[in-house]
Amino acid sequence: MDRDLLFLVGLVFLPLAFVALVSAWADRRRPWAALILVAVGLGVAAWASFTNPAGPYDWRLIPELAVETVGRYWQR
Q1: Looking at the predicted structure, is the pLDDT value of residue 55 above 80?
Q2: Residue 1: which of 56, 51, 39 has the closest Cα?
Q3: DSSP category for residue 56
Q4: What's the pTM value of the predicted model, to 2 decimals?
Q5: Fewest C-beta atoms under 10 Å: which of 32, 41, 61, 74?
Q6: Quick one: 66 exposed, middle or buried, by C-beta within 10 A (0-12, 13-18, 19+)?
Q7: Rounded mean pLDDT of 24-46?
Q8: How far is CA 59 from the centre of its chain?
Q9: CA separation (Å) from 37 to 13, 51, 59, 61, 68?
Q10: Which domain of life does this protein belong to (predicted)?
């Protein structure tokens, strides 16, 4: 799997973690799922960013990276 896709998948986990946190808070239970999603999302995104041969990703270029990556996989 390519690092760009892993980076984007890691970033997708972060809003899901927020939703899980709000859900746990509303139900008055411990946010274990949110903590796991944050750990996995940040871990995958950090690993993909720091092992990228071109260097760490620039946050301003994430939309362009997302479009290029989706286009690359859509074309296959």
Answers
A1: yes
A2: 51
A3: S
A4: 0.87
A5: 74
A6: middle
A7: 96
A8: 12
A9: 6, 21, 20, 24, 25
A10: Bacteria
Give CA–CA dist 44/26, Å, rounded: 28
Query: Which of the two residues, 22 and 1, has the higher pLDDT score?
Result: 22
Domain ranges, ordered by start, for the chain: 3-75
Nearest-angstrom CA–CA distance, 41 and 11: 6
Instruction: Using the predicted structure, report yes or no on whether residue 60 has a pLDDT greater than 90.
Output: yes
Q: According to DSSP H, which parts of the chain are helical? A: 3-26, 32-50, 62-75
Task: For residue 39, give the nearest of 9, 62, 17 by alpha carbon.
Answer: 17
Which residue type, as a one-letter code, is found at position 76? Answer: R
Q: In this predicted structure, what is the pLDDT of residue 18?
A: 96
Total residue count of the chain as it appears in this document: 76
